[in-house]
Amino acid sequence: MGKVAIIGVGQSTFTRAYPGSVRELAFEGFRDAMKDAQISTKDIGASVICSAPEYDKQRSPAGVFAEYLGLNPQPTFYVETLCSSSSMGLRLAYSLISSGLHDVVAVIGFQKMSEISSAESQERMGRGADIQWESPFGTMMPAYYAMYARAHMAKYGTTPEDLALIRVKAGTYGELNEKAAYRKGVTLEMFANPEDRMASPVASPLRTGDCCANADGSSCIIVANEEKAKSFCKKPVWVKGLGAASTAVNLAGRDLFTGLTVAQQAGEQAYKMAGIGPKDIDVAEVHDCFTIAEMMAYENLGFAKPGEGKDLIRSKETYKEGSIPVNVDGGLLSKGHPIGATGGSQVRTVVLQLRGEAGAIQVKNPEFGLVHNIGGVGLYGNVTILGR
Amino acid sequence: MGKKDTDVRFSKFGTVSFTATTKVNDFIGSLEQGKVMGTRCKGCGMVFFPPRADCYKCLSSDMEWFEVSGKGKLVSYSKLEYAPVGFDKDLPYSIALLDYGTYKVFGRIASDVPEAEIKVGMEMKTVVNTLSNNQLNYVFQKA
Ligand SMILES: [Zn+2]
Predict the structure, then answer these.
(1) Which CATH number covers residue A109?
(2) Total Cβ atoms within 10 A of residue B73
(3) Residues of B whose CB is below 8 A from A120
(4) 3-state secondary structure of B21
(5) pLDDT tens across A52-82, in order?
(6) What's phi and psi for B48, nearest 5 deg?
(7) Residue A136: phi, psi to the nearest 5?
(8) Into how many domains does chain A fold?
(9) Residue A335 in contact with residue A111, Cβ under 8 Å?
């Protein structure tokens, strides 16, 4: 089986309210990736369209997008695993290529969340969990993750300030990312000031500053087999390892509440396939939909032992100059989280890092990068390891 | 014939129910009698909460009901200050998970339990609750 490479990456600017339709939004990420890859639409054998449903009105977006992006008559279809949809799209593209069905596949993620209110969007996200047995209690994503935060604090002594440190780091790099929706710095003083928006309670113990915000955005990853990658691309980035897992939707069906089993399992699979371990990772993008999610990712991916994630952030080891730089593009906390586009944006950051093209956030000479992308409340987990 | 005969009791569950018809609609009948029930597979003995009509382990659909009783330990909780659309009148409320050993129960903490008295690991019990809109759910009280 030949190798599979990423030969083009792109994303739209993530924004609070995109002034256009979903197909136009998708075009922004696609154009960015096509310019990066310097190929034509005829070179693409299939497209995979990724998002979570019910935010905009378009049913079956794949057909509409394929036409608008000039990808007819090639096959196109839709992939959905909530917030990890575009990482799952990349996994699918890998299999389409390594099976020999296609030489080049475009993975396009998008979400336009601004068409509905924040409370409606919480209801949609809540219904990404168990609608029969949990949603009738009034659940929403921040509250589920807050339950993990509470359990982590009770078991390991993690504090709200430790979580705030993760938001402060995100703000540091969000300021540098011109594609991010939130480019203002964040300080611990903001969390300490009850009058500040950052400190306002959402779902205890999580506060507004612990939560990423909804955004509109699109991303695109162009994936190719070894032969095409070498002919099209001077700096192909290779897919070295892939992992994916699922677990019980209802929290009543789970046993671990201080971490996500899907991240542990997807991570183990990806490390094994790549033949490396956590210490070999030079830069990582993790799914920080909430500060606690990044803390658990440190531990679930083996960057820290269980309960010691707080030591990593306290000692700034996950900053750009640290031993394991994490989310040095500002993460979801600064970029915003346009659900279906998020995984592709994470992949884009790691690809630019491995090419040495990450500009102000470039880490020193990375060889391996990791993407951790979670769907729902640890319902779906994807870990992807990329290398030069 | 048709729609008139459809058993839609499950639309009574929770502040807003998103499911009307399920094979475990008798769960609602039990709630109305003050009991919170799970199911046990008669084929292999697997215990399910929330109740299921079908056993994934032995593929049997021959189930018996059991009552959620005694004390569970509070695994975690979160108090919401902001609610999804349809739930704002309930605010503030806390969602929580109780561990009974062989099964766990996801629900809400009773609104009369002061937050200062809630501790991870504390013992609680599950009781039926009638909501202000006359819907039914269950909540956790101090044991
Ligand atoms: Zn059975």
Answers:
(1) 3.40.47.10
(2) 16
(3) 84-85
(4) coil
(5) 999 999 999 999 999 999 999 999 999 999 9
(6) -125, 125
(7) -60, -15
(8) 1
(9) no
